[in-house]
What does this fold into?
Amino acid sequence: MAGVIMVVLGLLAAEDLKYKAVTVWKLVLFGLVCTIQAVRTGILRQSIEADTFLGVLFGIMVLLICVWTKQLGAADGIIILFLGLVGGIVRILGIFLAALLLMGLCGLILMMTGRVDKKTSMPVIPFVFLAVVWRGL
It folds into this structure.
């Protein structure tokens, strides 16, 4: 099932990279696949563990920041939320920090080569996808 999550996340990343937006049905599909994975592994069947709860709470906080500040899209927060459900707090923090590191390095390289300036927005989901590939889910 983790492979399906990776495929759907890869599709979302490609779409975000190309259009700087994602379609709702792909986002819903990602949420369904992540929820099925969480149920399948027993996280929601028995009791919610503290790790999973904190992962979801972190995702909710990122989603609220996305909505309030408008610096990130709501889809970015939703993806972090569902990855927190599947991976728990330790994995989602590692993925989130790795994505920020990759974004920073890419932005630095693009700025040094003169392709973008500091006001240019970058899609987030491709870097989350790369971080999941790098760190694992």
